[in-house]
Structure formats: C-alpha cells, structure tokens
Amino acid sequence: MAKLTLSFNDQIVAEYELDKEQMTIGRKADNDVQIDNLAVSGHHARILTILNDSFLEDQNSTNGTFVNGSPIKKHALQDGDAIMIGKHLLTYSNEAASRGGDNDFERTMVIRPDTKGMPENSGSESVDRSVEALGQQIAAESDRSVEQAAGRARVRVVSGANAGKELELKKALTTLGKPGVQVAAITRRAQGYFLIEIEAKDGGHPSVNGQQVGSEAIRLDNESVIEVAGVKMEFLLS
Amino acid sequence: MLAFAERSDTGRKRPHNEDRVAADPPHGIAVLADGMGGHKGGEIASALAVETVTRELATRLPGIATESPDDEAYAPESLLTRDVVHEANTIVYETARTQPQYEGMGTTLVVALFYDDRLTLAHVGDSRAYRLRGGQLEQLTRDHTLMQELIDRGFYTPEEARASLNRNIVTRALGIEESVNADLQEEIALPGDLYLLCSDGLNDMVDDEAIRLTLDKFGDNLEEAADQLIEEANGNGGQDNVSVVLARVIKPFPCRRSWFRRFVDWFQ
After folding, report:
1. Considering only CA atoms, which of B130, B172, B167 is closest in space to residue B150?
2. How many CB atoms lie within 10 A of CB B109?
3. Which residues in chain A are contacts of B167 at CB distance < 8 A?
4. Which residues of chain A neighbour B169 with C-beta distances below 8 Å?
5. CB–CB of B80/B50 below 8 Å?
6. B260 touches A at CB < 8 Å
7. How far apart are the C-alpha atoms of B54 and B29, rounded to whole Å?
8. Cα distance between residue B259 and residue B28, in whole Å
9. How many angstroms separate the CA atoms of B43 and B41, rounded?
10. With an 8 Å Cβ cutoff, are B146 and A50 in contact?
11. What is the pLDDT along chain A (238 residues), one digit of tens a residue?
C-alpha cells in the first residue's frame, strides 16, 4: 500500500495511507490531507490511485505544486517523490513499485466496468474495491465506440463557388478532391480525424493549416484549414 | 496485389505461446490474437478467435453486398468484419462459460481486411496495427488499456508509461463478456505501404524507432523482416510471446468498383 508522509521543517507531522481512489489535499477542513497554512490553497491538489499507481494533480492552486523541485499539473508518482505544497513536504512511498523485478512483465489482466475481484492487490479486500472503482470508471469511459471517441465533425467550404457548403463526416472514410488532380481522405480513428494524401499531381500536395501533407496522416483539430485541389475547407468538431 | 508474412514465437520467458496469427492472401485477411487466462485458456481463446475470424471472413466475403445503406458509416467489408469479430466473441465467451477449465479466458484481437485499395482495421485490446509509408511509421490503432487512458488524460508521457506497474491492464478483451465493442476504422492502402500487426510482446520489447528501422531496411523481403522483428524482441529479453503479421501492398488492388466512383465530389 502506498503512503504519504507529511512533514514541516524536517519534522514528520502525519502519515496517510493511499487507500481511497481520491485523496484531496488543501487548507480547508474537508480535505483528506489538511494543511492549515495560508500558502496552501483551499483545495490545492489531489491524488488519484488506480490499482498500484497513484497520480498527483494540481487543482489550479495559487502557489502551485512541486515534485522534486519542478512545478507540475499532472504527475505519475514514483516511490520517493518529494511533493512540496507551500512549505510542507509530502513524501510518497510505494513498496510495490520498489519490488521491481519481473513485476514489469506480469500477465495481462482485464479491467471491466463491472468486473468483480479484479487483480490482486496487497491490501485488504475492501480497500481493493475502493481503489478499483476509479479503474473501472476509466474502463467504462474507454469502452466508447470510435464515433463517440472521435466526436462529430464536418467540413465547410470557405473558398470558391461552393463557399459555405457543409458536409458532415458521417463515414469512416471520406475522400475529397478531384481525381487526376489532387485527392485526400479523412479517416476517423479513436484518436480523432486524420487527413491522408491519396493522389498528388505535379508536385502539388493537400495542406492542413498551410502545412503540406506528405506520407504521414495529419491529425485535424477544430477549425483546421484544409486545402485540397485548390479548394479551402474548414474542419469543425462539434 | 498484396504479399503477407506471419510469425509467432513463444519468446524467452513464457512456457507457452498464447498468441495466434493467420494470413489468407487470396482474401486479403490478416489476423492476430494474444490470449490470456491460465490452464491453456489463453491458447484456446486466441486460437478460437483467429480461426473463427479467418474462416468466417473467407466464407462470407464472396457474397458480400456491393454498397452499404446510405446512412451507414462503414463499407460492407467493415460491417462484415465487425460481425465476425462479434461471432468470435460469442464463441470464446460461450466456451469459457460452459467449460470450467477455461473460465475467465479472453484474448486481444486485431484484424486487417484488404479490399478495393482500402483496408478495414478492427481491434480489441492492446494488439496493434502500424503502417510504414514513405519511411514513416505510424501506429494506426489506439490501445484499449488503462495506460493509454492515463496517457490521454495527461498523467503520463508515453516514455513514463513504460515504467508503470499498471502496464498490462487492458480495458477491452474478446470473450470476457457477452458482447464486445471493437474499434473499426477504414484506411486507404497505397502501393508501397507496409502494414504490421503485432502483439505487445513486440512493442513492449522493441521501441517504435527500432521497428521503423527494421521495416524500412528489410521491408522488401517480408519473411526476413518478420524474422528480424522476432529476433529483436527476443534479443531484448523476450519477456512475452511475440507475434507479427506483415502485409505489403505491391500493386493497386481495385475490385468490383473503382473508388473514384464512390468519390465524394460534392464541392465541384
């Protein structure tokens, strides 16, 4: 079981076991780790624990959260990490992580939103269950279809005779352009939409935000400007 | 026109090979699965999944519709692929449910189906598809793992993720539940493209840059490229079973209808 040791001026003040999926750190009394000091924001940071790993997240604090001297917004905690919040030090220790060895190549396990009795942890059963909940929540979010993960998108023509015309990208693969001149395709993947060049004549290539598209797919962001066969289009995610 | 090569190796540390691969060049099918679950469960799960997908695709492709309904996002080949993946899920799930020695078994699965200058990719779990095009390597699939979700949420860089203890936790697998949600995507296949399907025994042991260099160097000889990838994974420790399927596009392979005809020429 991972734990946090709180110290101030080299004196240990308290110890906390990371036995919940979320531990909050801050000045106010409703935090799991309360640090009553003005340098600490009301809700300063939190630690998410999933199975054997813990993750520190700054909650937009005024004075910031530092790990081993560097400011962080999100950080995967490692055994021995020194977390500075104001003038207080939180030391993270995780014996499981320092066991090392063949742990790295444990067999693959499945985590599902409704799985019971997930991978064996070292702690008690009730603790395991609370720590699993977050993993299961993430598993549920991970189980979205490609369409849901990528979101809905459309392209709007911004130049030429058809300016203003829109096409919703309903298909997994949509081709754009003029055969024999220049052709590109937009493919939908779980990470989003990507533009790929299919055909280019006389050295002219499709472009995204002015950047020429080559053999590698370019990821499209909201409001990316695409140019294919001389027609400018705007890519819109909704 | 396509060329294929496939390899599956136990690696240096595991007692059994729970991976399974298959390629059916005449039908343009490449399949790879990485099974899990003790008492031979992993081997059974991956074998059932690969055999089912390969057989059902080959059987049903000749009778496939030429067009999907207008409101359908996917090509008929993608819909068929999704169907056979669901069928494979049912077979693995039912086997696990009815035979106590296989309880809890499951498998990852990645399928590439080539047709009409295109390909459909379907995957579940952390087996991957990559493409080498113009010397650039691109990972086409997104892993269904806890780690990938944490990377997407900004907690890890991909480099840091390699050191985590939660690395081997998948969020989706075939045969674990009554139904499965496979990711489906369609890509354009161009002459010269080299596609790689692999189990995590490859990408855990060999980083993307080393994979790229090997494919780039040996890509003209698929058999040699496949041997080389297995050798590198084993040379780096061979901690897991390692499997690859390679497919190279040698010439365009338009069929039934030209993709130009399906062109969305809507802005002309």
Report:
1. B167
2. 33
3. 104
4. 51, 108-111, 119, 135
5. no
6. yes
7. 7
8. 17
9. 5
10. yes
11. 789 999 999 999 999 999 888 999 999 999 999 999 999 999 999 999 887 789 999 999 999 999 999 999 999 999 999 999 999 999 999 876 555 444 445 678 888 877 554 443 334 444 455 556 777 888 888 888 898 899 999 999 999 888 999 999 999 999 998 888 899 999 999 999 999 998 888 778 999 999 998 878 999 999 999 999 999 999 999 8
Answer whether A63's CB lies under 8 Å from A42's CB.
no
For residue B175, how many other CB atoms are within 10 A of its CB? 34
Q: What is the predicted ipTM? A: 0.87
- Closest partner residue to A53 (CB to CB) among B134, B164, B263 is B164
Tokens in use for B156? 């890890």
Per-residue DSSP letter, A160: S
| Cβ contact A190–B266 (<8 Å) | no
How many helical (H) and strand (E) elements, i.e. helices and strands, does chain A have?
3, 22
Which tokens is B122 given? Answer: 């379907």
Which of B10, B92, B137, B146 is the mutation pick for testing A, counting most A CBs within 10 A? B146
Inter-chain CB proximity B142 and A198 less than 8 Å: no
Nearest C-alpha neighbor of A90 from the set A112, A106, A75, A107: A75
Look up residue A212 and give its two tokens: 């020429």
Q: How far is A151 from chain B (nearest CA, A)?
A: 13
- Write phi, then psi, for B235 (nearest 5 degrees): -65, -30
Q: What is the model's pTM?
A: 0.88
